[in-house]
Specification:
This protein is an alpha/beta fold. The protein is built from 14 helices and 9 strands. It has one domain: TIM Barrel. The structure holds (3S,4R)-3-hydroxy-2-oxopiperidin-4-yl beta-D-xylopyranoside.
């Protein structure tokens, strides 16, 4: 054999070997994602879900739909059931997308969450102008009766009231509160229970790991219970970061809420990988920091996470899920706020135009290291 032929043979063998290795890696990751899923891994512990956007609900985004059907057994509507969307004018309800959302959940035998009946944000403008309590009561009655009755037996859990508390545990001075005091909360829970006695009813809010805010939730739940009203759960939104909150604070809240006889759900889990504006705390959707747009310091991973950051993210998710498993008897559901990183609201909030990486699936729907770390907890 000439030297030249030998060289050609060697190079061809090398190419064959490299490509067979590649296939092997591909096959391993495909089987992993086919044979295991979050919903199956955690089926004896709690439900696992995701918030869906409009194109997912309308099944236009088929790649998302495949993943949603494979990985999740509960869904939440990211925006489509909020007051401004579903009830934009006094006598106008818009049910088109909400109907499709509920049908999608039913088709897949999923636990369907309604988000949310009473919230100061993304509220229809006509409701912001209401000044007297009689009109406010009538409007709330009309809103809750119409929506909850329409989906009676189909929506399994309602976020009845969202974000009614300030950080110190006092009541937020929303228009609902200005007009009715905190009576709007008991009214909402009473109406929802009457409209669908079998639906689970939840109070949902962010920063519920904070001791002062925790105190406010405990008072709120006790007050509803003292009035003989039904409340089944507290929803901790869980818009968290790599650094905080501490596992201890989260655990103390799980224990405090469970001690009231209600279940805990993590309703909007995501973990930001990006630096936050110095004074940002929580998830108030009206906050926006335009001065930081296009500031590269605030957008350190415009392509993908560094290996170090991806590892940190995986470890953080692992620690959080380990805590969830420790308290699985108190936890009903863990829902991610979005399906893949590219679809997360954290790409445009609180600073728009950034590239965030807060979920378990990357922009190409591939499971990330964090996904495998979370799943591995069930194999230990
Ligand atoms: C967010 C949506 O993800 C965004 O698309 C929208 O622009 C603003 O609201 N707390 C909640 C959710 O209860 O409804 C919010 O969802 C995030 C914070």
């Amino acid at each position: 054999m000439t030297h030249r032929i030998k060289k050609i043979l060697l190079v061809s063998a090398l190419i064959l070997w490299v490509s067979s290795c590649k296939n092997e890696v591909k096959e391993i990751s495909n089987t992993q994602s086919k044979d295991t899923s979050l919903k199956d891994a955690f089926k004896s512990d709690f439900l696992i879900g995701a918030a869906l956007n409009k194109s997912q609900i309308e099944e236009k985004d088929t790649l998302s739909i495949n993943l949603i059907e494979r990985e999740f057994n509960t869904i939440s509507p990211e925006n489509e059931m909020k007051w401004e969307q579903i009830h934009p004018q006094k006598d106008t309800f818009y049910f088109d997308v909400a109907d499709k959302y509920v049908a999608l959940g039913e088709k897949n035998n999923m636990h369907v969450v309604g988000h949310t009946l009473i919230w100061h944000s993304q509220l229809a403008p006509w409701m912001q102008d209401v000044k007297d309590s009689l009109t406010m009561v009538k409007n709330i009655e009309h809103h809750i009766n119409t929506i909850v009755k329409r989906y009676k037996g189909k929506i399994d859990t309602w976020d009845v009231v969202n974000e009614a508390l300030n950080e110190d545990g006092s009541f937020r001075t929303s228009n609902f509160y200005k007009v009715m005091g905190d009576n709007f909360i008991s009214l909402a829970f009473k109406l929802a229970a009457e409209a669908d006695p079998d639906a689970k009813l939840v109070y949902n809010d962010y920063n519920l790991w904070k001791p002062e805010k925790r105190g406010g939730v405990v008072r709120l739940v006790k007050d509803l219970q003292a009035q003989g009203l039904k409340i089944d759960g507290v929803g901790m939104q869980a818009h968290w970061s790599l650094e905080g909150p501490s596992l201890k604070d989260i655990e103390n809240s799980i224990l405090a809420y469970a001690a009231l006889g209600v279940k805990v759900s993590f309703t909007e889990l995501d973990i930001t990988a990006l630096p936050n504006p110095w004074d940002l705390d929580g998830a108030a959707v009206e906050q926006n920091y335009e001065q930081y747009e296009n500031d590269p310091k605030m957008n350190p991973y415009p392509e993908k996470l560094s290996v170090a950051a991806a590892t940190q993210m995986a470890n953080r998710y692992e620690a959080i899920f380990k805590l969830f498993l420790k308290h699985k008897d108190k936890i009903d559901r863990v829902t991610f706020w979005g399906v893949n990183d590219g679809q997360s609201w954290l790409n445009y909030w609180p600073i728009s135009g950034r590239t965030n990486h807060p979920l378990l699936f990357d922009r190409d729907f591939n499971p990330k290291k964090a996904y495998y770390n979370v799943l591995a907890l069930k194999n230990k």
